[in-house]
Amino acid sequence: MNKKFVSLTLLSAIVALTFFVLPVKPQNITTLYVEPQLTTIRPLRTFEINISIANVTDLAGWEFKLYYPNSLLNATEIREGPFLKTAGGTFVTVKEFTDNYNETHGRIWAACVLEGQGPGANGTGTLAIITFKTKLNGIAILHLAETDLIDSEMPPNHISHITVDGNVKILNVDISILNVETSKTIVGQGFLVNNITVTIKNQGETFETFNLTIYVNTSSIASQVATLPSGDLAILKFIWNTTGFAKGNYVISAYATPVSGETDTADNTFIDGTIYVGIPGDINGDRVVDIFDITYICVVYDTRMGEPGYVPNCDINSDGIIDIFDVTTACITYGQKDP
Fold this sequence. Notes:
- This protein is mostly beta strands.
- The chain has 3 helices and 19 strands.
- The strands form 4 sheets. Strands 2-11-9-4-7-6 form a 6-stranded mixed β-sheet, with no helix packed on it. The protein has a 5-stranded mixed β-sheet with strand order 5-8-3-1-10, with no helix packed on it.
- Mean pLDDT is 92; it is low at 1-21.
């Protein structure tokens, strides 16, 4: 293998791992940071983060700008935290609060100072609390920039500090229908399509419970509740009793109700094709029961489901075997025609 390729691959892996290793706040160094440093959440959910400070002495005022990707997050509220108030009354100003600072980012620009004179706050605590709502799945970096801390001296001194950003992992939520198959394409009116098979997959990163419904044209005929861990696949089976349905062609489809936070819903619907409901014994769907239908049944007579030669359309009563009952049904309706 090419050594350069191996090196690049190793470097990529290290970078990927480094991204998820959260920085540690150094001991005894004044640190302005996003807390928690990693938030894991579903799309379309509301959550809060803190702008916090650690290891500060004589804090009399603060200012920060927080940048975030506006394709993933919507900022909804900011309010002052309790820390600076421990030293007295405060004056807060929000200079900017917008999701549209530029094409890619929103920006929150806030500042706060103590009112009057006196010593500042010491220790560790929360300066501000910000509320966000998640949009699409992805990794959002909450980036602190242009920060400033001042003490209570006159004139005030800038307090040396470091900053630590935060990360928001918005989970992928996606239920997908991979396939729909029917055991028959032609069924006698009043008889069963005893096997409509639906293959579903949880393509997201969350454990999900959802409803799966089968439709013939626009009529719901059956529904099941499915539960799938992330990445799992399941096969669900349904039965359609055609009693009460008019003769004609019916489009078979499956629909998975979108789960909370699901944004990609195009794959929640799957259309299989058509099933013709006709005269019992009309095996070839030409709208008449004649010698061709009887012959067809006789050719595959005594075959069972799963065996070579078994033709589901010839198993009129859907009992898993093509036998005298199917021949008898076709003989009873022999000669009947649909307009």
